[in-house]
Amino acid sequence: MTETDNIVAETAERIFADLADAQTINHDKQGSWKAPLWQALAENGLALSWVPEDCDGSGTSMAEGFSVLSVAGRAGVSVPLAETMLAGWLLAQGKIKSPAGMMTVAPANTRDRLTLNGDGTISGRARGIPFAREAKHIAVVAGSSIALIDASACKIDAGLSLAGDHSDTVHLDKVKPTAIAKAPAGIDEKALLLMGALARSLQIAGALETMLSISVQYSGERVAFEKKISKFQAVQHNLAKLAGETSAALAAASSAADAFSHGAPIDDALFLEAAAAKIRCSEAAEKGAAIAHQVHGAIGFTQEHILHRYTLRALAWRDDFGSESYWAVELGKLVANLGADELWPLVASR
Amino acid sequence: MTAALRFDPIRLPPECEQLRKEVRAFLADEIAAGTFDPHRPVQEDADNREFSRRVGEKGWLGMTWPKKYGGHERSFLERYVVTEEMRVANAPVRRFFVADRQSGPVLLKYAPEHIKMDILPRICRGEICFSIGMSEPNSGSDLFAAKTKATKTDGGFLINGSKIWTTSAHIADYMIAIFRTSPPTKENRRHGLTQFLVNMKTPGIKVNPIDQITGQQEFNEVVFTDAFIPDDHMLGEIDGAWKQATSELAYERSGPERFLETYYTLTELVRAVGPEPDTRSAEGIGRLVAQLHTMRRMSVSVAGMLQAGKEPVVEASIVKDIGTVWEQQLPHRVRELAAFVDDNASNHATLDEMLDFAIKTAPKLTIQGGTTEVLRGIIARGLGLR
Ligand SMILES: Cc1cc2nc3c(=O)[nH]c(=O)nc-3n(C[C@H](O)[C@H](O)[C@H](O)COP(=O)(O)OP(=O)(O)OC[C@H]3O[C@@H](n4cnc5c(N)ncnc54)[C@H](O)[C@@H]3O)c2cc1C
Fold it and tell me: Per the database record, which ranges form the Acyl-CoA oxidase/dehydrogenase middle domain (chain B) (predicted)?
C-alpha cells in the first residue's frame, strides 16, 4: 500500500486493514462486517472529518479529509464514508450541526434540481443518490438553501450501481427539513457536484492503486508456459500502461484536492482542476480496469475474486456527480468561451 | 506493494509566476519584431542564432548551473516555466535546447574543470549548439550494441565508424557521444562504452543530412574517419558510459517538451470552433484539455521531485510514455473534431496546414529519446517485474 501522509489517513488505513480485509469481506455474504467497520470509522471521527468541532464534527483539515477518501478508494468497500463526509461538509457550509449516523447528499445527478417551496418545505426528485436507503439523513441543496432531511420523510426507490452499491432515487414531496440555512455565496448545486466529483476522483485513483498492486502481485504468482506471466513482455507492457493510467489518475486527483484544500473560491482554474480530475480519472478507470482484468484472466471474472470490488466500483464512480462526458462538455464550453489565446494561461495558472 | 507511485501536487512558487510574465513579454517582443510566427510550427529558422544569444542574455540558459560557469543558480521549476512558455509559443529553440537540457548537465558532472570553464559559459550565452551521438545504424533501442570505436593513441583517441539520427549535427559545434573503448564482457554486455566530448570541427568528421517525412531536415548521419579526440575530452569513467547515459535520461524524459510538440493544433481548434461550440466539439475539447492539464501536473510534479534531489526514474518514464502517446494522438483527435467546423472559420486554412504538419510529425514522437516499448520495459522494471 502507498504510504499515507498524515495521522488521520493512517487511522483510516488501519481501520480498513483491520475490519475490511478484502478476503474476509468477500466470504461474508451476510455483510456482518459493515456495522463494526462503520462504527470504527464514526468513533474515530472520520465520517465527520470535514465538520468543524462547533458543528459536532472532528474539524479535520480539507487536505486530511481528502487523504481519507484516497484510503477509502484503495479499500474499495461499500460503505458511505465519502457520502457522509460530503454531507457533513455541505451542512457545515450552512452552519448546520451534523447528526450522528450515515448520511448522503442530493442532488448527485447533473439533471436533477430540488426546489424550496414557499412554505419552507422541499420538493423534487433526485436520482442516483448513493446509499440513500442506508442513510439516516440526506444533506441537500435546494435553490439557494442548504437543508438537512430525515431520510424516512422521503420516498426512496431502490436502485443499484454497477458495483452493486445502493444508488437510489429519492422523491421529496413537500418534505419539511430538520434544519435549513441560507447557502453562503459560491455554495450551490454546482459546488456540491464539484466536491462530489473530486471525492469520486480520489476514490477512483485509490481503486486504481489497488488494481495495480494486486495485478503486479498476481502476475508474479501465476505461471503459464513454465514462466511467471510477469516475465512476458506483453504482460509487462500492459502493467506499465496500468501504472501510467494510475499515475495520471493520482496526479489529477491529488492536484485538484490540493487546489481545493486552499479554500479559494471556485474560479475557472479551480473548476479546471476538479473537472479535469473527474474526466481523467474516469478515463483511467476504463482503461485501467480493462488491463487489470486482462492480467488476471478468468479468475478475475469470478464473484469469488476480489478484483471486481475495485474495477466495478471505479467504473461505477464515473457516473456519480457528473460523468466524464458531462464535465468535458462543461470544461469545453468554458475553454471555448475564454478563447484560444486564454487556453494556455488557464492551463499554466498553477 | 512493489512500487508506490508518487505524484505530489507541486505548485510553482511565486518567483515562477514573475518569471513567466517576463518570458511572455520577451516572446511577445520577439514576435512583434518578426523573429518567429507563434502560429507556425513549421520553423524554417528553428536554429536562429541571434534569438539564441538573446535568450542567453536574459539569463534563461544554464539556469540551474553554478554561477562560476555562467549559470544562474535558479530552480528546476523556474527552468520549467521558461521551457513551457518557449514551447507553447513555438519559439526557435533548436540551437540551444539540447545543450541546455542535456549536454551542459553531463559536462557539469563529468568534464574536467578547464573544459567546464571554457564551454559552459558559452552555452549560457547561447553561443554554441550541441548534438547527442548515441544511435548507430545497428544500435538504437539496444544502445549497448554500439560499435563505433575509440582507439587509444598518443594523447587521445582515434574515432572510426558512424552515428545516425543525430539531431542538429549539421549545425552543432559539439557532440557528446558514446564510443566503444573495449568489447563487452561476458558478465556485463553494457561494459566497454565511453562518453566523449567531440568538437565537430575536428578533421575526419563528415555530416550527411537525412531528410525527414515532414520535409524538414533535423537529423543526420555522422561519419568518423580517424577523427582525433584529446584525452581530456573523455567524460567520466572509461568503459563506464552506460551508468552515465542512463541517469542522463531522467532529465530528457519528463519535461514539457514531451507533451507540447503538437499543442498548437489544440489552440487552433479552439479558435476555429469559436465561443459557442456544439456539444460534440465542447466535449472533445474538454477531454483534451483535461488530459493536457493532467499531463502537465504530472510533469511539474516530476520537476519538483528533481528539484528536491530525488530520482523519480519510473515516474519520469511514465510521463514520457503518456506524454508522447498523447501528443502523437492529439492531431488526430483534433482532425476528428475539426470535421464539422465551419469552412468559413477565419483560421481554417491555418488549421488545415498545421494539422498536415502535426500529423506528419506525430510518428516520431514515440521514437525519439527512447521508444514507447523500451520505456514500458523501464516502467516494468520499476514495478519489480524484471
Ligand atoms: C526525430 C528523431 C530524432 C532523433 N535524434 C537522435 C539524436 O539526436 N541522437 C541519437 O543518438 N539518436 C537520436 N534518435 C534516435 C532514437 O533514439 C532511436 O530512433 C530510438 O532509440 C530507436 O532506435 P531505432 O530507430 O534503431 O529503432 P529499433 O531499435 O530498431 O526499434 C524498432 C522497433 O523495435 C522495437 N524494439 C526494439 N527493441 C525492443 C525490445 N527490447 N522490446 C520491445 N520492442 C523493441 C522498438 O520499440 C521499435 O518499435 C532520434 C530519432 C528520431 C526519430
Answer: 132-226
